[in-house]
């Protein structure tokens, strides 16, 4: 009944392209550091190694490395970042009041010793940053908790790169949470109970009897645990993991947390309020490395497609899930930073604020895409790129792959 | 951690024993209202017995509870603190409306929009089959910010009367952070929830004898309506 508990945790596991895990002997911190450095200068960038490093013990180790690796995980050219938002970003946005309200009261997210003035300045940046993304992407809707994701990025990578990352995340991993309603979010939460059912039927049935629902895990999911973890270093560790994983991984981690507390849950009164309360409190001393490994094992053993089938989850309208493979592939052809820097400079384009909206080609295509993202036929644009880019061959290769994925994927890419 | 998190604040201050007797009655109260009106502050204050240092946006639903003794009976009061943003209320919070015994509507006296949202919140309750037989109270929060009041007591009282609810004006702010450290508004927050609890216990109008010490402070716990009208369905509390 409790397969997971019986299984030994492997020392380190990696997420491969499809988000499943493979075994890998644990390596020392120094070796890992060297591996990450090597992966970063490979051409194209060794994204597999970076993903593995982000998921295995210790994650990406330091903020300095995070600043280098996080953009790669999201296929962002750090030499072509969006501008700081202008003053007009605060004008006329329906979510302005809500964003300001949530950001100004989110004190806990900032380091304890930080001077109030510095924190206040960062909070203002945070407001601009969120509104910038919302203005650029009218299809996206703000939710309370989005600011917890934004602040985590801002504190590590600074304003401009945080905007680029948040834009990408919002269009992929967080996309479902940003629909006009939270129906898609509910759908994602619905994967939780089927995982538990596979691993510990007794616990699953107990929770069903208690009618506890899954809202206790809502803030975990939509903030990637940023809202609930008291220690920032743990949040960062999880962000490393999630940035390198399938968008449903936060749900698998939620399952491991519930399973980890299985005894406590079963000892609780079988009542919605009591179980909800117990579960919504994240213990201070969670063994994160262990749970991350278990989440990967669960993902491998019970991938989303299998769960959807077994649990008869309604056919999935999840954009995060349906675009994930294309997203993953788009990260495969990135140039290392030294090359990117040269190319970006050579193209004289360090300013395209639109660039980060578009997946797939931008890393291989430093150039005039800002202007190209105008109106007109997408196919024509692609052809123009192919001809004008210095990296024509690479572009065509990517474009060809895109064609193979079919028109839906293509539309999402452009 | 004197923060609002969502720790279980089981207070036994009013009972001699921390263990509830086997058949403790539970009163479930849901607290709703716009984002930022102070729902988390109010519920934390009542359950933890102190004011939170700072509160953050509530995502989904937080749960707090406390044991109180009313007329010799120990009762567990469960407060469901909800997210204010509309998208949460539409698809996430419904689950928690079930089996609720009472509803506390909160608005921010310094924010007229939060007052104008009240009909929507009342409608929300109706949709979840919470009729007028379920005790409801209206709480205007942040009455300490006298210079920025946008919702006058008269208007609020009219609205409360029209919906047969008692009105409370209070502040969940830490009184120590203000000039008058003796204003004891904490007792008023206490009074709000105790009034609901008494109402639930008796399902009759009652007068709560919470001592309004230092009532010269900035906090008003307004009178409930006592002027007849459709008094049969209305119920009120008077503490000052």
UniProtKB/TrEMBL annotation, chain A:
The gene is LOC114432166. It is found in: Membrane. It comes from Parambassis ranga (Indian glassy fish). One of its GO terms (molecular function) is GTPase activator activity. GO terms for cellular component: endoplasmic reticulum membrane. This is TBC1 domain family member 20. Keywords: GTPase activation, Membrane, Transmembrane, Transmembrane helix. It is a multi-pass membrane protein. Its main location: membrane. Pfam families: RabGAP-TBC. Residues 1-27 are annotated as: Disordered. The chain crosses the membrane at residues 206-226, 238-259, 382-403. Residues 60-246 form the Rab-GAP TBC domain. GO terms for biological process: endoplasmic reticulum to Golgi vesicle-mediated transport; Golgi organization; vesicle organization.
Automatic annotation (TrEMBL), chain B:
Keywords: GTP-binding, Hydrolase, Lipoprotein, Membrane, Methylation, Nucleotide-binding, Prenylation. Coiled coil: none annotated. Its cofactor is Mg(2+). The keyword Membrane applies. Residues 203-240 are annotated as: Disordered. SUPFAM superfamilies: P-loop containing nucleoside triphosphate hydrolases. It is found in: Endomembrane system. Its main location: membrane. GO terms for cellular component: Golgi apparatus. The keyword Coiled coil does not apply. It catalyses: GTP + H2O = GDP + phosphate + H(+). GO terms for molecular function: G protein activity; GTP binding. Pfam families: Ras. GO terms for biological process: Rab protein signal transduction. It is an enzyme of class 3 (hydrolase). Signal peptide: none annotated. Its EC number is 3.6.5.2. InterPro entries: P-loop_NTPase, Rab33A/B, Small_GTP-bd, Small_GTPase. It is a lipid-anchor. Belongs to the small GTPase superfamily. Rab family. This is small monomeric GTPase. It comes from Parambassis ranga.
């Amino acid at each position: 009944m409790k397969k997971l508990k019986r299984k030994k945790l492997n020392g380190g596991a990696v997420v491969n392209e499809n988000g499943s895990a493979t075994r890998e002997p644990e390596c020392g911190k120094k070796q890992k550091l060297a591996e990450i450095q090597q992966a970063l200068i490979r051409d194209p960038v060794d994204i597999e190694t970076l993903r593995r490093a982000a998921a295995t013990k210790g994650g990406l180790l330091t903020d300095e490395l995070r600043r280098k690796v996080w953009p790669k995980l999201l296929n962002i050219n750090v030499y072509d970042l969006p501008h700081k938002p202008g003053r007009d970003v605060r004008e006329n946005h329906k979510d302005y009041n809500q964003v300001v309200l949530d950001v100004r009261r989110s004190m806990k997210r900032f380091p304890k010793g930080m001077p109030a003035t510095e924190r206040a300045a960062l909070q203002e940046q945070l407001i601009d940053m969120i509104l910038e993304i919302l203005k650029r992407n009218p299809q996206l809707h703000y939710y309370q908790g989005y600011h917890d994701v934004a602040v985590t990025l801002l504190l590590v990578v600074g304003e401009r790169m945080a905007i680029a990352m948040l834009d990408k995340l919002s269009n992929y991993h967080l996309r479902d949470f940003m629909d006009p309603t939270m129906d898609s979010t509910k759908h994602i939460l619905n994967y939780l109970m089927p995982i538990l059912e596979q691993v510990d039927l007794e616990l699953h049935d107990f929770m069903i009897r208690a009618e506890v629902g899954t809202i206790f895990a809502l803030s975990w999911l939509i903030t990637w645990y940023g809202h609930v973890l008291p220690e920032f270093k743990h949040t960062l560790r999880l962000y490393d993991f999630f940035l390198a994983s399938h968008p449903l991984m936060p749900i698998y981690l939620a399952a491991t947390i519930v399973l980890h507390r299985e005894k406590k849950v079963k000892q609780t009164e079988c009542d919605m309020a009591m179980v909800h309360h117990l579960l919504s409190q994240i213990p201070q001393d969670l063994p994160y490395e262990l749970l991350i490994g278990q989440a990967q094992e669960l993902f491998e053993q019970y991938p989303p497609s299998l769960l959807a089938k077994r649990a008869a989850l309604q056919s999935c309208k999840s954009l995060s899930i349906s675009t994930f493979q294309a997203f993953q592939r788009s990260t495969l052809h990135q140039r290392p930073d030294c090359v990117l820097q040269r190319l970006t400079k050579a193209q004289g384009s360090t300013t395209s604020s639109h660039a980060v909206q578009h997946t797939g080609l931008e890393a291989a295509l430093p150039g005039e895409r800002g202007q190209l993202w105008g109106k007109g036929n997408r196919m024509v644009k692609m052809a123009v790129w192919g001809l004008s880019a210095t990296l024509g061959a690479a572009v065509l290769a990517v474009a060809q792959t895109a064609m193979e994925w079919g028109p839906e994927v293509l539309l999402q890419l452009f | 951690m004197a923060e609002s998190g969502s720790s279980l604040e089981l207070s036994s201050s009013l009972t001699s024993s921390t263990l509830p007797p086997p058949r403790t009655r539970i009163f479930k109260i849901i607290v709703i209202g716009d984002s930022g009106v102070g729902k988390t502050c109010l519920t934390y204050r009542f359950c933890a017995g102190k004011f939170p240092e700072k509160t953050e946006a509530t995502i989904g639903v937080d749960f707090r509870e406390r044991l109180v003794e009313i007329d010799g009976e120990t009762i567990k009061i469960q407060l469901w603190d909800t997210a204010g943003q509309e998208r949460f209320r539409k698809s996430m919070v419904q689950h928690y409306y079930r089996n609720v015994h009472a509803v506390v509507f909160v608005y921010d006296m310094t924010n007229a929009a939060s007052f104008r949202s009240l009909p929507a919140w009342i409608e929300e309750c109706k949709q979840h089959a919470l009729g007028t037989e379920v005790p409801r109270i209206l709480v205007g929060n942040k009455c300490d910010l006298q210079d920025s009041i946008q919702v006058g007591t008269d208007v609020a009282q009219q609205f409360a009367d029209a919906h047969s609810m008692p009105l409370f004006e209070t502040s969940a702010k830490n009184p120590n952070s203000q000039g008058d450290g003796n204003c004891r508004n904490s007792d008023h927050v206490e009074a709000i929830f105790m009034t609901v609890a008494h109402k639930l216990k008796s399902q009759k109008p009652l007068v709560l004898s919470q001592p309004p010490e230092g009532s010269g402070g900035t906090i008003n716990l307004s009178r409930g309506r006592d002027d007849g009208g459709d008094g049969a369905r209305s119920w009120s509390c008077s503490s000052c």
